[in-house]
Design brief:
about 60% helix; five-stranded mixed β-sheet; 2 domains
């Protein structure tokens, strides 16, 4: 019996190596291409979802968060503060004489006022955990986790003075601000904090507007 020449055997092996190598290269390119395609599509989908989330939680006029997002944020911060026994502060801000200004100069001018107030709020509220929102109409809300009433009052005054300085006519475009701060307890809900800040806002309106008032309600143990 005669065996095959060594060159013939090596040629077969080389041919098989090239064939298998080509197949592996095609498979690798396919896997890499598919991975890159899927990664790009997943990135696009995540970006689209983030954009939709932003649109769903942002006020289109002012660029601040909307009330839905604010309610979500204050609920989360309230629970966190209850665990850590730390205060939560809220500012309720309302544009003074806005209805008459809107009726006199038109909705477009009124919208510009709201945008200006929103910019002043954003300039004054910069901490990562804070949340500024358009609460409805000409009313704004600011969530300030961890701040006492005195500290929150300082933020409120910064906002009020910024609006006063920004406005061309301080007699028309000013804001009144209600301030409330409370450390959560089992008998309280974050809606009590909002209510307290609202009452302080009404007091600011009744006292002549363009001022900040701190809520002082003993039964809510608010820090005055």
């Amino acid at each position: 019996m005669v065996g095959k020449p060594l060159d013939s055997i090596l040629k077969l092996w080389h041919r098989e190596v090239l064939r298998i190598g080509a197949i592996m290269l095609v498979l690798i390119l396919f896997v890499v291409g598919t991975t890159l395609f899927l990664a790009r599509e997943i990135g696009r989908r995540a970006e689209a979802e983030d954009k939709l989330e932003e649109l769903a939680t942002t006020d289109s006029l002012t660029g601040l968060k909307n009330r839905r997002k604010f309610d979500i944020e204050i609920d989360a911060e309230w629970r966190r503060a209850a665990r850590n026994k730390t205060p939560v502060a809220v500012l309720m801000i309302d544009a003074d004489h806005f209805k008459s200004y809107n009726d006199t100069f038109g909705h477009q001018a009124g919208d510009q006022v709201l945008v200006g107030i929103a910019i002043c709020i954003s300039d004054a509220v910069r901490r990562a955990g804070d949340c500024s929102a358009r609460y409805g109409g000409e009313e704004f809300a600011v969530l300030l986790p961890g701040l006492s009433a005195i500290e929150a009052f300082a933020v409120a005054e910064t906002i009020r003075l910024k609006v006063e300085q920004w406005s061309e006519d301080p007699g028309v475009t000013t804001v009144s601000i209600g301030v409330a701060s409370i450390t959560p307890s089992a008998s309280l809900n974050w809606s009590d904090l909002i209510e307290a800040a609202d009452k302080a806002l009404y007091a600011a309106k009744a006292n002549g507007r363009n001022q900040s008032v701190v809520a002082a309600i003993p039964q809510l143990a608010l820090v005055a």
